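To the wet lab folks,

You asked to see what we're planning to order before we commit. Fair enough. Below is the target structure as tokens, and below that is the sequence we designed to fit it. If anything looks off to you, flag it before the synthesis order goes out.
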């Protein structure tokens, strides 16, 4: 997914990062083939294989559901309201139910703007979801501080990347970014601590994250925070035939990477 958003004057750079397009990144130092393959093989055994078949993940989301995020900075919950953005809430529900965001790196955090994630740490999963765009939802809620929204690369391009508003960004309301939930209580204290010192000009390459997974971020941007797990805690989701038991293998420690909108973050998808 290549997404870049052009915005006027002072918002140009910040808004662009909300897109799902990777910004040009500096050439990353090549890693030895041996060192790269082993970690990849280990990681491969940890994701839910149902994620390799996006077309089968179509469960209807509850009207209201709560997702618990466990991260390297602490835990927080997000309450999703399906009525706010039905298509977005449903896509997020199926992604979380099948642990798409587990071990994902928070590859973008811009102080006083947004923090973004949503590129899988597993190349095979990223490939499977590359052409799974969903249509836009009408924007019924404002992009207030704490709201969670899908990043986009233009009309009807939402896939897996999401961002959380770090302040009231009402100007995003007119550009198609439809909030579908909000961070609960003091959860923003955790979100605001995600490592944000690399900046939008650090050269984080979204394409490299998709192609090589978390290892690219671990090597080049080791201070990024990671989402250890994202789980639906209320109401508890029912098992489906499309769901395969998640491997018990331990996932390699993920390092914060840029969500599908690292460089230009998935238009705040």
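Sequence we intend to order:
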């Amino acid at each position: 997914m290549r997404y870049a958003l052009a915005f006027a004057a002072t918002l140009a750079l910040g808004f662009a990062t909300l897109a799902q397009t990777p910004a040009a990144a500096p050439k990353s130092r090549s890693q030895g083939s041996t060192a790269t393959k082993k970690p990849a093989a280990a990681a491969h055994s940890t994701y839910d294989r149902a994620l390799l078949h996006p077309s089968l993940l179509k469960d209807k989301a509850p009207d209201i559901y709560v997702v618990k995020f466990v991260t390297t900075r602490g835990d927080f919950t997000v309450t999703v309201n399906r009525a706010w953005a039905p298509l977005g809430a449903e896509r997020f529900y199926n992604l979380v139910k099948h642990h798409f965001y587990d071990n994902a790196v928070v590859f973008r955090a811009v102080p006083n703007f947004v923090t973004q994630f949503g590129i899988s740490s597993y190349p095979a999963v990223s490939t499977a979801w590359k052409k799974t765009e969903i249509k836009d939802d009408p924007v019924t809620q404002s992009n207030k501080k704490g709201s969670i929204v899908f990043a986009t690369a233009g009309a009807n391009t939402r896939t897996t990347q999401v961002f959380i508003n770090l302040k009231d960004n009402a100007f995003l309301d007119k550009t198609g970014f439809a909030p579908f939930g909000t961070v609960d209580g003091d959860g923003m204290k955790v979100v605001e601590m995600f490592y944000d010192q690399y900046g939008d000009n650090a050269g984080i390459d979204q394409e490299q994250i998709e192609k090589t997974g978390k290892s690219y971020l671990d090597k080049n941007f080791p201070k990024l925070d990671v989402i250890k797990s994202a789980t639906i805690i209320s109401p508890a989701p029912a098992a489906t035939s499309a769901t395969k038991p998640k491997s018990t293998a331990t996932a390699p420690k993920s390092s914060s990477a840029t969500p599908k909108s690292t460089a230009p973050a998935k238009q705040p998808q």
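Structural context that might help your review: The chain has one domain: 11-22+34-234. The mean pLDDT is 81.

Thanks,
Computational group
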